[in-house]
Design a protein that fits this description.
With about 550 residues, the protein is of the alpha/beta class. Helix content is about 25%, strand content about 20%. The protein is built from 14 helices and 21 strands. Helix 5 packs parallel to helix 6. The longest helix has 18 residues. The radius of gyration is 23 Å and the shape is globular. About 50% of the residues are buried.
Length: about 550
């Protein structure tokens, strides 16, 4: 989705933190496996992924230092093809070896080099997303006027760009004048929201009855996959998809530049119909798919990214005023958070149609709640409700072993966020005042029983996001306090200290709560700065 990013709006916080405009795609802390014991079922252990264009570019070291303090384990960095390619506004392709990173302007790569080095210094992983917008010389013919268009981009040219990126960040490349090679990047994603017209066009033709963007994306994936394999990244984490969660289904939509509902996009991407039968004949040919059975048998081998990728990425933004466990009514092809089981099923059935039984993991790489204030639109909700929904959403993500990451977009609302819009999903307002969502993100807490319980112990799920990094840096074990305050009055008192043994900071415990009141988590940084979760309400039955 297109959204407006704001300018730098720093806010000093206790302990020296600086508020930045960011996309936080989070699990809870660092690590790769979980030791927390769930109360009822198997669970995943989603990691944290963070994206920041403005602040990473303005101050890579300072931004990554902040993220380290917040416990973020991975940063999503967007390599926009048009901003790196030479002569990007020219109609004719300049003469250069597009697969050679040294053939690009050194100044175009320099900010990414700084980010890679700064991330390595902070022990933070990177997710390099390679995608549009597209250099003018790599666009296909017949593009109607549209300032955001990535119209029929050339797969060959994109593959060369992906090869240049892969070669530069393979762990051996030494930029001119540098004494040491750049650190290796081992986590990649291809394109952004290809089911959304500004990201890839046209979306559909013939009165929107024939999907086009899935075929375009399939070609881009093939080219990028080959390029990453050729540059030694074949065993890296490589995500595909990055789909927007919604789309248009009425009238002549999505047309050239609107959005295609993601599950329709996925079916066309894998060349299957609504019943998950392989397309054939004219319907297949119109979508760039093999028209006969023999071609269908070769499909998986000819498009390895679709079947061998490390995972399928989605931006499962909610509708806001709908609880996170409720699907958008009347929209079976949406892929918002509550619909992710349908996305998983669609992927499974699409792969199975081509004889592949693998289940692709799902990565959430953009997520957040628009709030009112400042936005007075239907899907914007008040910050207190958004805080509850954020924690509820992360709990649901943690409970689903198929989902490998959890995301928060943004940290600070764009300055344009106002009553008319602006995508105000930040944890701070644009004037640098924290929202209720800030403590909810920093240290989530959720009571799965809905905040009610009897005399028995109550399940309390939570996360101390920075704790795993602190343990790694100091060698000291970490614990958090479960605190309770009775309804009406009184101070918070610690009921139980919980060891944080999970590599990502999660815990799931049962605690006896004496009466109705509020529950929170308390934890302290090594410098003594104490932080708290939001207050979660509890009602004794």
């Amino acid at each position: 989705m297109l959204r407006t990013r704001g300018s730098l709006t720093p806010l000093a916080l206790a302990g020296g933190l600086i508020v930045l405009l960011v996309l936080l795609a989070t699990g809870c802390g660092s690590g790769s496996s979980s030791s927390a014991q769930p109360a009822a079922s198997a669970h995943g252990d989603p990691e944290s992924i963070f994206e920041d264009e403005l602040h990473l570019h303005a101050d890579p070291s300072g931004t990554l230092n902040l993220l380290h303090r917040l416990g973020v384990s991975r940063v999503r960095v967007y390599l926009a093809w048009k901003t790196i390619a030479p002569g990007a506004s020219a109609q004719a392709r300049p003469a250069f070896n597009a697969a050679d990173p040294a053939a690009y302007p050194a100044s175009a790569w320099s900010i990414y080099d700084r980010i890679v080095r700064a991330a390595a210094a902070q022990h933070i992983g990177l997710d390099f997303t390679i995608g549009g917008p597209v250099p003018q010389w790599a666009l296909g013919p017949g593009a109607p006027p549209n300032p955001f268009s990535s119209w029929k981009p050339s797969p060959a040219d994109f593959g060369a760009f992906a090869q240049a990126a892969g070669a530069r960040y393979d762990g051996t490349f030494k930029p001119a004048g540098d004494a040491t090679p750049l650190p290796r990047v081992d986590f990649w994603s291809v394109w952004n929201e290809p089911n959304y017209g500004p990201g890839l066009a046209p979306q559909a033709t013939q009165q929107s009855t024939v999907e086009v963007s899935p075929n375009l994306y399939r070609g881009l994936l093939d080219a990028a996959w080959r390029a990453l394999e050729q540059t030694g990244h074949g065993q890296d984490t490589i995500l595909i998809g990055e789909v927007a969660p919604r789309g248009q289904t009425s009238g002549n939509q999505p047309g050239n530049f609107s959005g295609m509902v993601p599950l329709r996009f996925v079916r066309a991407l894998y060349c299957v119909d609504d019943s998950f039968r392989a397309l054939s004949g004219a319907a297949a040919s119109a979508r760039g798919c093999p028209p006969d059975a023999s071609g269908s048998k070769r499909f998986a081998g000819e498009h390895p990214a679709l079947f061998r990728a490390s995972g399928f990425a989605v931006h499962p933004y909610p509708q806001g005023n709908i609880p996170p466990n409720v699907r958008t009514p009347g929209e079976p092809d949406f892929a918002d958070l509550a619909a992710l089981p349908s996305l998983a099923s669609t992927l499974d059935r699409a792969l199975a149609a081509h004889g592949v039984s693998r289940q692709l993991p799902i990565y959430s790489t953009e997520f957040g709640y628009q709030t009112n204030p400042p936005e007075k639109i239907a899907r914007a909700i008040d910050p207190n409700t958004a805080a509850i929904y954020l924690n509820w959403s992360e709990y649901l993500t943690w409970r689903d072993p198929r989902i490998r990451s959890y995301d928060q977009y943004l940290l600070t609302d764009p300055p344009a966020a106002n009553s008319l819009g602006g995508f105000a999903t930040g944890l701070w307002f644009s004037n640098s005042v924290p929202k209720a969502t800030y403590p909810a993100f920093r240290m989530p807490i959720y009571l799965p029983a809905g905040g009610t319980g009897g005399a028995e112990e109550v399940e309390i799920w939570g996360c101390v996001r920075p704790a795993p990094d602190v343990k790694r840096d100091t060698g000291q074990g970490q614990s958090a306090d479960i605190q309770f305050r009775p309804s009406g009055s009184g101070a918070f008192k610690t009921l139980r200290s919980v060891p944080i043994s999970d590599p990502r900071g999660y815990f799931d415990v049962r605690v006896a709560l004496p009466q109705s009141g509020a529950v929170r988590i308390a934890w302290a940084y090594p410098d003594g700065t104490k932080i708290y979760s939001r207050n979660a309400s509890f009602t004794r039955r």
